Amino acid sequence: MPLTMKKLAEIFTNKETGLTQGHRMCPGCGAPITVKLALMTAKALGYEPVIGFATGCMEVSSTIYPFTSWSVPYIHNAFENVAATISGVETAYRALKKSGKISADKKYAFFAFGGDGGTYDIGLQSLSGAVERGHKFIYILYDNEGYMNTGNQRSGSTPPGADTTTAPVGKKIPGKVQLKKNIVEIIAGHEYVYAATVAFGEPMDFMSKIEKALSFDGPSFIAALSPCVRYWRVPEDQTVDITKLAIQTKYWPLYEVDRGVYKVTRKPSTFKPVSEFIKTQERFRLLLQRPDAQEIIDEIQHYVDRRWERLLALEEATKDKPIR
Amino acid sequence: MTKVHKEAITGAQAAAYAMKQIEPDVVAAYPITPQTPIVEYFAKYVADGVVKTEMVPVESEHSAMSAVVGAAAAGARAMTATSANGLALMHEIVYITASMRLPVVMPVVNRALSGPINIHCDHSDTMAERDSGWIQLFCEDAQEVYDLTLMAVRLAEHEQVRLPVMVNQDGFIISHGVEPVELLPDEVAKKFVGELKPLYPLLDTEHPVTYGPLDLYDYYFEHKRQQIEAMKNVFKVFPSIAEEFYNITGRRYNFVEPYKMEDAQYVMVALGSTNGTIKYVVDQLREEGKKVGLLKIWMFRPFPKAEIQRLLTGRKAVVVLDRSASFGAEAPLYEAIKSSLYEVASKPLLGSFVYGLGGRDINPELVRFAFEKAMKHELVVDQELYLGLRE
Questions:
Q1: How far is it, in rounded angstroms, from Cα B171 to Cα A153?
Q2: Does B78 touch chain A (CB under 8 A)?
Q3: Rounded CA gap, B188 and B4, in Å?
Q4: Partner residue opposite A99 with nearest CB, options B52, B63, B92
């Protein structure tokens, strides 16, 4: 019987999710929703979460000494090393279990959380190392497509046309010109890994992927689209809807790569043009004012269409052909 | 006295052998010359099942220290080892380890810090971590590497200390030089080291803790003060650990080792393997009737100022040898000695010699030259001189 939102609501009526009230994240922020959904799924399935966090908005807003919003074990080390840190925690667990210093009965779930800066960019090496070594942990990327903790700078995840302070839309240069780095493909390329995209606008899909990651005997990587209300300039009550729109416009396809086997987990029967996603957000306002706006939007549309076709082709080609 | 066996081994082997007997729960490491043999010997112990340690062959030194932080916070005894640029790559996490008060022990095989790249010994790597909040011990030979590595675990894990320790050995000179080393039986070493009592382990889910929070101006300063106090506690704690070690081995350690110092008028101060050469020269000069002595520094952080003041006051001259430079300022050991002597009743004449950068050889003639300068009262305070340098 799979978990449902109703079931989660029942379980957590009188139980802590792990992230308690009082954190200082912005109203409408996607990050705590992502974290909570992951933690509730793990706890509902009987796991004890132990969390590592990369430096970022969520970390600085939830642990302002002498307060903490975490009622589960939590460690923040630095910006670029959450995967290495949690690999140390996970190794300690195996070592202490082997030597009988801790009980083998408890089911631990080791989570590492990082934003896009800590994942696509500065933390990529430590993430790659930890995945290659095969530690059993779940890395969750909350992707808001820029450096929000330091105030709207571009990251390897920022899409073309979005206005950021280090790649601003100017008279000469139309903001960031490069596409988003395809992080899921990079991690999936480590081969013995479960990698997937999620969005909390599709919670059932989200929870089932966390469940799969928890039962996978090795590293998992979950990329969660996580809008930032301040940078994306969207109304606080629109966060969830915007992730739905991202799925409907192929901007954020929901899929998984399980040891090389691709599966598209949501296939909308009709799609909306990507411009509808772009127009909801003020971060694209300056792009839309440019004379070449349509050209850039067409380019993004072309990219998302091609990627979607490619995903379907990969799904067909890799069916029943796991790498290991 | 405990029955020991003597083996001809390198400093790297001595470190790895101590690690084998410590048998940490987790070792995360990345190879770098001249530290590599430590990790190789230890990896073989793991591969042969001699130790139960879980080894994490990480993709960089930055991740080595990061994984060690994770493991130590989780409640495991965790170690790593490094050199030079590897230590520099760890730098950010070296501070975090100390600020989380994690009792990590790390052999450091001292090597010049680039650039230009150079794989040979000097102390520029460890001096860059001088103010990181780690205890820093320096070894003269492989025997001291073995002994101080065992003692470092006790020191790091002591409830009044809870700070990480670097056990420094000179790259190639100690790490690759073969010497006879007295080794304790496994059970004696294990008993001496004891079991780690984890404090606030992350894996205790019944008592969840938050490590590494955002700490702003309202508490950060107090937390730094706690680290300062913990460092001071080393002066109280280390002598009792060293005493216990003496009772087992007959080898006595302290913050510093005075050598032929009783009536010495001219004293040399140094760190690491060069102390062996200095002892040889001291012996020669003593035979010639010269009143010379050596003050070897075992513990550089915390700096045993009181001990140094007591031992250096009233001497005619003090010559400080540094195996690293501080560009635009005094060399680190010289600076520390000079600062200590500010308050003594009778100040000796002071001389600063920088030597051995990038593995440049230091020989008895050069040490004798420095002593002679002192004995001829030719030292000029703050005039930095160089041994073995083509000027």
A1: 43
A2: yes
A3: 10
A4: B52
